[in-house]
Structure to design on (750 residues):
């Protein structure tokens, strides 16, 4: 198997199932239609990884922004009870329009639970760990086109710009057709990284924006990503629109850095093997990096000495001096 | 007057290639250099068009004059010329004339120089070999003798390294170089050679006669500020690097350094003395910028390069020094405890220029690798953060300085910040 085919196959295993994506989009569209028809709502748009097409399988949630008419809610946007009030208001609307028993537009939502920034709407049993949810976030449009969103914990409103990230990802995708697929590959890779706690998926998206090249082959781009990200991860990873601060202050940076460094070493070996024409060795190393879903060459998979670094045969250096 | 080589500017080459079958040449010929250069070209009898070599202060500018002719020829002549030049031989005049279809000038008592342009060398079967399009000849009544030519290439400069070297990434990078002395001067030249696009040169000192014995620059700059001398030199020989000469002292002018750090990708500090190095470490860490510190220790016995990264698990210069001191590897200078600017600035000159230049060049390599690693260049990862290089090692030094052979290089990892460090603690 060639590298291109192997990466294509691996991509298929990482990508969300098309039926799941369709279902998620359909559910999102029901919310958009129902909430968008309300008198005090100006617009409803998707904002999460589904909107950026960087979603990973399986899809558990959909993010929505519900932009309200500021004139209809003159107290919103100011410190105090307004943040809680906005979330309750939106939660109430979801209940009336989409509640599982008496929803006037559709009967989808079993529980609409106002959280810190958004209303978490459970479409399945809330006890189910894989429950499908829609996070609906109320917002006000500001004169600079960014959003003002409620924050219950601080009893205040904060600026946000989810559209910035959507646009940035789209721009990269235009430059390099593998950008979104590679973001999904990297988000998937992070799930196997041995760190204290978890790595937020948005952390990987920001690292990809900063460190993933938008040119070249997928193996070369990955090698560059891991090398650059191993440096980048040591510095604060903040909201790219520069509005709310660090995305994951409790991130295990050293753990992630070590994993990125190791991945950079492996990717470098894999690229060197491929450049030497040793495609099977390259596949073996990529499989070591990405796990068993990556199609490694069949005949070597059973060998007990699968330690990939040893597979790369040393190469004589040419005696061709340059002065 | 005789020349063994003729230089042809790109402009002269283009005029010949676009001007029909033959024409005249005027040349400058420098007898001591056995060198000629084409300075103008005509098409047949038309007016001579200037096409001289740049820069104007070339050695040929003051040389004698000469004239010559150029001919458009078939590729066979250039193939034959390669054969005869291997035998250090020439063609008979008749043989040469046979290849010139138009405008041939028969030499009288005076020989002349000819250039031949053979556009057919790119067609089969001639395209197999390395046959040049333009050749030069010394044509006399005795025959025609090939002589060497150098045609100015169409592309000059660092772009020739792309794509095997990340030319674009480096050309948009900015390095602040603190210290324009022996190590700093060598580092400046090396940074430009690597292709760093922007250099901020920071040093408050002037170049003295006593500096010349180990500095990269020459006596014509004595008395000038070191940064001005370096900037002028780089402008002449490495014009692709843009320099800013800043006559600043990082200790005294820290407030003017801070805003410059905002457009700096990495700081290379080659300043001697404890205080400037400490200040650079502090300012760069606060600005979140990687720093490379280069120096020689123990009267030039060791070169040392230390890379400081503004990361939570990496210490500053003072932390690294204290860790090394605690492990028994280093005596910390008493002036380290003195306030900024009160320590002795300079130690007596004990290290030799070549060794200092080695350290400056390795420091430049480390700085460039630091920039490129951030850009995803996996082949620029370093084996550690601290390196010690034996220059004149003596037995008995404590680790990591326990090196016994000159040229030995040892890399070590970085260490975490020391508790309570005012530089490493979040402000
Ligand atoms: Zn410190």
């Amino acid at each position: 198997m060639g590298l291109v085919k192997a990466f294509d196959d691996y991509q298929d295993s990482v990508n969300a199932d098309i039926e799941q994506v369709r279902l998620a989009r359909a559910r999102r569209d029901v919310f958009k239609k129902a909430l968008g028809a309300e008198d005090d709502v100006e617009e409803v748009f998707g904002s999460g990884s589904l909107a950026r097409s960087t979603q990973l399988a399986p899809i558990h949630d959909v993010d929505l922004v519900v932009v309200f008419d500021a004139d209809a809610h003159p107290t919103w946007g100011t410190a105090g009870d307004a943040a809680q009030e906005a979330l309750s208001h939106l939660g109430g609307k979801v209940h009336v329009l989409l509640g599982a028993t008496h929803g006037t537009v559709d009967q989808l939502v079993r529980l609409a639970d106002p959280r810190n920034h958004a209303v978490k709407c459970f479409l399945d049993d809330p006890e189910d760990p894989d429950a499908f949810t829609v996070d609906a976030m109320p917002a006000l449009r500001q004169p600079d086109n960014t959003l003002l969103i409620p924050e219950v914990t601080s009893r205040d409103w904060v600026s946000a710009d989810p559209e910035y990230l959507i646009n940035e990802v789209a721009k990269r995708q235009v430059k390099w057709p593998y950008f979104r697929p590679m973001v999904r590959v990297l988000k998937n890779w992070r799930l196997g990284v041995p760190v204290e706690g978890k790595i937020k998926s948005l952390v990987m998206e920001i690292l990809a924006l900063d460190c993933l090249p938008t040119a070249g082959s997928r193996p070369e781009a990955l090698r560059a990503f891991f090398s650059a990200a191993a440096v980048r991860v040591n510095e604060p990873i903040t909201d790219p629109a520069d509005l709310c601060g660090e995305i994951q202050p409790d991130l295990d940076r050293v753990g992630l850095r070590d994993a990125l460094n190791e991945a950079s070493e492996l990717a470098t070996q894999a690229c060197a093997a491929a450049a030497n024409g040793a495609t099977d060795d390259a596949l073996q190393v990529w499989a070591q990096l990405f796990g068993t879903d990556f199609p490694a060459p069949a005949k070597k998979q059973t060998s007990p000495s699968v330690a990939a670094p040893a597979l790369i045969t040393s190469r004589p250096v040419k005696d061709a001096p340059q002065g | 007057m005789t020349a063994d080589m003729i230089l042809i500017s790109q402009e002269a080459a283009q005029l010949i290639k676009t001007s029909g079958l033959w024409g005249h040449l005027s040349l400058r010929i420098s007898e001591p250099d056995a060198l000629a250069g084409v300075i103008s070209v005509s098409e047949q009898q038309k007016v001579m068009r200037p096409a001289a070599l740049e820069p104007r202060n070339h050695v040929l500018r003051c040389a004698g004059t000469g004239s010559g002719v150029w001919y458009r020829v078939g590729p066979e002549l250039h193939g034959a010329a390669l054969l005869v030049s291997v035998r250090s031989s020439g063609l008979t005049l008749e043989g040469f004339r046979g290849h010139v279809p138009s405008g041939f000038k028969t030499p009288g008592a005076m020989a002349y120089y000819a250039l031949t342009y053979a556009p057919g060398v790119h067609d089969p079967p001639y395209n197999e070999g390395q046959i040049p399009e333009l050749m030069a000849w010394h044509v006399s009544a005795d025959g025609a003798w090939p002589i060497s030519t150098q045609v100015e290439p169409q592309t000059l400069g660092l772009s020739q390294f792309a794509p095997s070297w990340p030319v674009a990434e480096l050309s948009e990078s900015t390095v602040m170089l603190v210290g324009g002395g022996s190590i700093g001067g060598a580092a400046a030249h090396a940074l430009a050679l690597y292709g760093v696009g922007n250099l901020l040169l920071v040093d408050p000192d002037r170049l003295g006669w006593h500096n010349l014995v180990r500095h990269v620059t020459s006596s014509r700059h004595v008395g000038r500020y070191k940064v001005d001398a370096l900037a002028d030199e780089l402008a002449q020989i490495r014009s692709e690097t843009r320099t800013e000469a800043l006559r600043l002292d990082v200790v005294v002018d820290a407030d003017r350094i801070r805003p410059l750090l905002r457009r700096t990708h990495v700081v290379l500090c080659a300043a001697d003395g404890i205080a400037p190095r400490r200040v650079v470490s502090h300012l760069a860490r606060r600005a979140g910028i990687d720093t490379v510190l280069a120096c020689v220790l123990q009267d030039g016995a060791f070169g040392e390069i230390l890379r400081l990264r503004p990361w939570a698990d990496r210490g500053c210069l003072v932390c690294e020094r204290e860790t090394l001191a605690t492990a028994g590897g280093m005596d910390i200078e008493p002036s380290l405890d003195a306030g900024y600017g009160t320590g002795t600035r300079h130690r007596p000159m004990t290290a030799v220029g070549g060794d200092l230049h080695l350290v400056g060049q390795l420091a430049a390599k480390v700085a460039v690798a630091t920039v490129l690693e951030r850009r995803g260049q996996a082949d620029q990862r370093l084996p550690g953060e601290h390196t010690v290089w034996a220059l004149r090692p003596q037995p008995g030094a404590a680790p990591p300085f326990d090196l016994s052979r000159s040229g030995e290089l040892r890399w070590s990892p970085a260490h975490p910040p020391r508790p309570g460090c005012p530089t490493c603690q979040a402000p």
Remarks:
- Chain B has two domains: 5-151, 158-339+346-412.
- The interface with chain A takes residues 288, 309-313, 373-379, 381 of chain B (CB under 8 Å).
